[in-house]
Amino acid sequence: xxxxxxxxxxxxxxxxxxxxxxxxxxxxxxxxxxxxxxxxxxxxxxxxxxxxxxxxxxxxxxxxxxxxxxxxxxxxxxxxxxxxxxxxxxxxxxxxxxxxxxxxxxxxxxxxxxxxxxxxxxxxxxxxxxxxxxxxxxxxxxxxxxxxxxxxxxxxxxxxxxxxxxxxxxxxxxxxxxxxxxxxxxxxxxxxxxxxxxxxxxxxxxxxxxxx
Length: 212
Description:
This protein is of the alpha+beta class. It has 2 domains: 2-104, Beta Polymerase, domain 2 (2-Layer Sandwich), CATH 3.30.460; 111-205, no CATH class. The chain has helices at 2-12, 22-25, 91-104, 111-127, 133-153, 161-171, 173-185, 188-205, and strands at 16-20, 34-40, 46-48, 51-52, 55-63, 83-87. Strands 1, 2, 3, 4, 5 and 6 form a 6-stranded mixed β-sheet that branches. Helix 6 crosses helix 7. The chain is elongated, with a radius of gyration of 20 Å. The N and C termini lie far apart (51 Å). Residues 208-212 have low confidence and may be disordered.
């Protein structure tokens, strides 16, 4: 990572660097991108996807003016839980705090909204029984969209598939195993097991625990 940071410092002279994703939580491997947000004194917004020492960058560069005054924290939720590597004037700390408050303060979906999402999963599963192109499309669509739906059922903030998968594996290993099987095998039975897991989570989340 030091080679990457040396390149970024020389290329952009940043005021702030926030790294997020696998390099922030220590789970990077040979195939990982270096995900970061840079803030510079001036200049246009840019995206750097070059390779540095065999590591591909996924670095977004913003001018300081984008973070002065009021701005929409929703546009920067990817840095939630990120690590500050450089912060010359406190703008990175301010951004992370604003994003944290925004994400943590988001209104959760109502039980009726969650019920409709679960019902949609079951509808997609029925359509996935088709053996034609539409059936295959519905199966893939269900696999993609249901990850966010399950995350919402757990009342976790959804911050993209990479973070959602890590969170699922860490906090709900049983559900992760079912979802991983559905993803890797791709057959209807495995997908049906995953949708059953979603329904069970919804039914369970509505139960009130008795006070002891």
